[in-house]
Automatic annotation (TrEMBL):
Residues 73-92 are annotated as: Disordered. This is F-box protein. It comes from Arachis hypogaea (Peanut). InterPro entries: PP2-like. Pfam families: PP2 (PF14299).
Length: 151
């Protein structure tokens, strides 16, 4: 039972097993959320929490060797700064030791019952995956609206 006039967020709650998770390091996954009869919202995220923390070096062509052949080498310069709008693509730490990734949000108008569909997919990479413990999907209010006032 959801409260009327409330914006909700849905979060995948997970953590790597004691042996560690694998197969999530470089492959994005697709998360989606939809209210029945309404457009589905999809986006790409990463379940590897370290991906957002790793240094990212730009790969640039350099002329190397006797005959000045062009080869791709990693630049020795500073890492590229992360873009702020990418922060929501990585899991966040929770106080209980688990991680959470927002799947999306939806608005509960109240009145008629509706079905909310949530999904987590990785079908493009084809690599084996394992070691991910899933606690569940948590749905919690983000914002309440009462008589046109936001609380």
């Amino acid at each position: 039972m959801l409260s009327p006039d409330t914006l909700y967020g849905a979060y995948l709650v997970f953590k790597p097993s004691s042996a560690g998770a694998y197969g999530f390091e470089y492959q994005s996954i697709e998360v989606s959320i939809a209210v029945a009869g309404v457009e589905t919202h999809k986006r790409a995220v990463f379940l590897d929490p370290e991906r957002g923390k790793r240094l990212r070096y730009q790969i640039v062509p350099r002329r190397v060797g006797i005959f000045n052949r062009t080869r791709m080498v990693a630049a020795a310069g500073p890492p590229q700064p992360p873009r702020d709008n990418l922060d929501d693509q990585y899991p966040k730490d929770r106080k209980d030791g688990w991680l959470e990734m927002e799947l999306g949000q939806f608005f509960s108008e109240g009145g008629e019952d509706k079905e909310v569909e949530m999904g987590v997919y990785e079908i493009k990479g084809g690599d084996w995956k394992g070691g991910l413990l899933v606690q569940g999907i948590e749905v919690r209010p983000k914002q309440c609206v009462h008589a046109n006032n936001t609380i």
